[in-house]
Amino acid sequence: MASATRTRDHEEIRHWVEERGGIPTIVKGTGGLLRIDFVRGAKSGGREDSLEEVDWDRWFELFDQNELSFLHSPEEDSKFFKLVSASKGEKQDGSDRRASTSSERPNRGEDWNVVLVTKEDEGWVVEFEDEGDREVFRTKSEAVQHARGLAREHEPAELIIEKVDGEEEDRIHYGLPEEHAPA
């Protein structure tokens, strides 16, 4: 991808998503890990079983609460997007809070971290959600190895590994008592 556009504007995001046949969703069982499910149009695989549709008000509430920006391709036929931590200049109140909040993670009993492994155009990406860190690896095994190290280092943590198509492949918990681990 030659260029990407970053925005926090709700209407711009909603327009971009709906124009490409997307709907606002969260990953089931996470309490608010945001996703977009492209359910209409070319190359749509239909609804993802791991995602739960939410209304735009709820989606944007979580988006703002977690101080995210929407990074996306301006190309008309592209569905590339990424939710990233907003830079200080983009945050609504200018604060420097952590990207994820305890209110996003109900029933955990304590603060926990999320490490996410996804496939993107540039390679396998490891994101440490609470710090806003993002690293790109050439192979999936390198990315998973790094992600496991991050999760162990920052226990309690949850490692989410996605397949190439964005579907969830595995979810591993580090240092979470069973009664607090997501189902």
Architecture blueprint of SSEs:
Elements: E1 5-7, H1 10-19, E2 22-27, E3 34-38, E4 51-53, H2 56-65, E5 68-72, E6 81-85, E7 113-120, E8 123-128, E9 133-137, H3 140-153, E10 157-162, E11 168-174
Parallel strand pairs: 7-10
Antiparallel strand pairs: 1-5, 2-3, 2-4, 5-6, 7-8, 8-9, 10-11
Précis, in short:
The protein is 19% helix and 32% strand.
Overall geometry comes to globular
How much strand? 25-35%
Quote the average pLDDT. Answer: 74
Structural class, by secondary structure, is alpha+beta
Q: Mind summarizing the main beta sheet?
A: 5 strands, mixed
Q: How helix-rich are the residues, as a percent range?
A: 10-25%
Radius of gyration: 16 Å
Order of helices and strands: EHEEEHEEEEEHEE
| Beginning-to-end CA distance, first to last residue | 36 Å
Please mark out the parts with pLDDT under 50 across 5 or more consecutive residues, or reply none.
88-110, 179-183
What is the topology, as strand order, of the major beta sheet? 9-8-7-10-11
Number of strands: 11
Per DSSP, the total helix count is 3
Overall description:
The protein is of the alpha+beta class and 183 residues long. 19% of the residues lie in helices and 32% in strands. The chain contains three helices and eleven strands; from the N terminus they run E-H-E-E-E-H-E-E-E-E-E-H-E-E. The strands form three sheets. It has a five-stranded mixed β-sheet, with helices on one face. A three-stranded antiparallel β-sheet has the order 1-5-6. The protein is globular. The N and C termini lie far apart (36 Å). The C terminus is likely disordered.
